Known about the structure:
B: 616 residues, alpha/beta, Rossmann fold, 23 strands, 35% helix
Amino acid sequence: MNRTSTALSDVRRVAKxxxxxxxxxxxxxxxxxxxxxxxxxxxxxxxxxAAQSASDMFLPPSSAHxxxxxxxxxxxxxxxxxxxxxxxxxxxxxxxxxxxxxxxAGITAGYRGGLFDELFMRLIDSFQAVPWLLFVMLIAxxxxxxxxxxxxxxxxxxxxxxxxxxRAATLDIVARDYIWAAKARGExxxxxxxxxxxxxxxxxxxxxxxxxxxxMLLWFSSLSFLxxxxxxxxxxxxxxxxxxxxxxxxxxxxxxxxxxxxSTFIIGINLTADAFGKALGIDRSAGEAxx
Amino acid sequence: xxxxxxxxxxxxxxxxSRPDGxxxxxLRDIGFALDRGETLGIxxxxxxxxxxxxxxxxxxxxxxxQIGTGSIRLDGREIVGIDRQQLEHLRGxxxxxxxxxxxxxxxxxxxxxxHFEEQLALKTDLPAAARRERAAELVATMRxxxxxxxxxxxxxxxxxGQQQRIGIALALAxxxxxxxxxxxxxxxxxxxxxxxxxxxREIGAQEKLAMIYVSHDIGVIxxxxxxxxxxxxxxxxxxxxxxxxxxxxxxxxAAGLLASVPRMEAQTMPEALPGTPPGPRPASAYCAFSPRxxxxxxxxxxQWPAQTQLTPEHRLACHHPLEPFGLRPDRPASIxxxxxxxxGAIQAPDIPxxxxxxxxxxxxxxxxxxxxxxxxxxATVSDVSFTVAPGEVxxxxxxxxxxxxxxxxxxxxxxxxxxxxxxxxxxVLADNVACRSPDQRxxxxxxxxNPDDSLNPRQSVRQIIQRPLIWFRGLKGAExxxxxxxxxxxxxLPARHAERRPGELSGGEKQRVAIARALAARPSLLLCDxxxxxxxxxxxxxxxxxxxxxxxxxxxxxxxxxxxxxxxxHIADRIVILQAGRICEAGATGTIMAHPSHPYSASxxxxxxxxxxxxx
Lengths: 291, 616
């Protein structure tokens, strides 16, 4: 019980520390707005996102269509409101995969050290030398672009970076005497990793994961832009930008609206993550040292 | 103060600059004067404002602090309140600082020569050619061989002692009249330390420098100072000529601090000073030391003691000062008398608890590069053998890098030796801790040097102490709680500390938690790795007293590693002296102290005794 109450007060303290930073408060407001929008959009959108109408093509913003219509006569507002969902859900899951496997691999490598660590790091180096957009495209083309495939592939690629961060954070902890004391007690490796190391690097991983999420969003949208992410006619910001780019001079709103939505979402995540990092006392630039 | 004074400080106070509320003082009403050629030693525990005092004299107190009142005069010239440019002009030319760790102040990518070039260009008016000459001259003054070669080197190519000498030479480049020394020898080995101190004394006399030497090492202060000032809670509580203060301190704090220093000559354990210094205080109306003072009365708690002049040379701020010569080393021992058995009587024990035979250890693991090149890392420890009997304390002494800690880690099973055998209670001790029985692991417990590093900052004291109780003894529920409580009590911590995290404790308290964790496993052998070196002397004395008591109560044996001969002398029955990974001498403490046979042990003992000469 004691433990829960301290955990609760910790959460409250951190939340307060985030909100007192202007950038943190702004980021959180943007983030909450976007998340709320994604949740309520399916209920409140004015039109069917797939409804095409030859008579409504290329309409400028008006009271009927606040953000105008696109080249197929679909309501842009509707599609922008719905367009973040798939990206957000996929990338959240992919980030979880990335941080999970990256953390396990990085912590193990940092803890084991020696030859194991060196081989593991060289392996990661070689993976990072692969132009991964091509790698993802290759996978998506051969295995299809089902969400589960994208989640696993993105998760794998981003996990490499998480592994580096986790390893660097672990290296800092693993030489401490309290780890030696646990080893001298003969504690099993998993206990040491979970009880002694994890609490010390949890915050670093959380903040790093949040930053990863924003990168992942950008890349997921790029995949959609290239036609490898969300399949039409389902709305997606990347896909919308891709569709609208041919008519940029005619209906700029159809491209601008999803661009703004995507950028604000990413800015919101970044500001919040940075503020969290500061609140938790993590210098992100130092987090990657030694990788 | 006469104009001849190189440095005079009067009623200086520094406080936290908070606009609201009562001002809190870091330094309060400090005053002293220093002539050229004179050295003032400043002592006090950590957090008493020593470093802030130095910073104030350089005109660079940190952000959030401000000088409240007072004046600081350099050669008669006021420096409080002058602008940045003037200050920068003074620094290096009139007043200079030798920092604690020179290695960190040297830029790794610049040669030593470039450092001098920069400093001389900034702080002197010499032309370029003369600057090079002057640099070589300065390096030569530091008794570094082959100045030209030294100037061409990079900082990492010099040893710690050499780097510190360069630090001093750089400080002297602008020919300052006042030299501030901020614990310049703390990071150095005993013998290197003595050489640096010698050098500083010589240069001080030669150049007629006014020096302020700040340290928590009272032995060093005793060697260096003409006068000594004792700082407590930001106040100069006593200031006198060195010999007077060392032998007859009048302020109870000064006396307590001196009594906690382990001495080579003393027959008793050093005495602990209870409590910790307070943080920044409001301008309170009572004596800051009264909560820790045995002599405190109602007067001390209601009235701030003003400074009084006992003699022209001796100033004191105390309502109830000790009588002159109040600190007598021959008064009855309060903790324990020094072990008389140590006078050569102890032989190697018949039934040893642990036997170590021809141990050879290499510290570094083989890396990928080692594998590919077929290299084997060099051994840090070779051919080391000794035994420890139950209830015995074996001191392991040597300078840094001599392999003391390496040996402890091997015995703890954290570092597999390359050769050699270890036997514990008659059974072979496996190299790797994972291969040892739980009983063996529990009975050998290690206490680490730095409690900041050995306690997990994310766990509470309770979690830290109860882990070995659960792991080794399978306790749970009420029994577990009771045992945690008992252990916290054993190491003299208040029960409420159990719910705190290490970050909320002082250094001494943290080390007590580490001791409690080791005791939780009911060890028969404690491996103590320089456990007092990160602590103030007053706290060190308390920890030594605690260990001595535990030894007598539980008959636990100890392998006590230290670089401090005086500490070892007070706690160890026998000692082993290590040099570069090999045993150079071993035997009963009393015998070795009286008649060291190896020149290296003789020099270590002489170094430790050197300080004692300054005490009565």
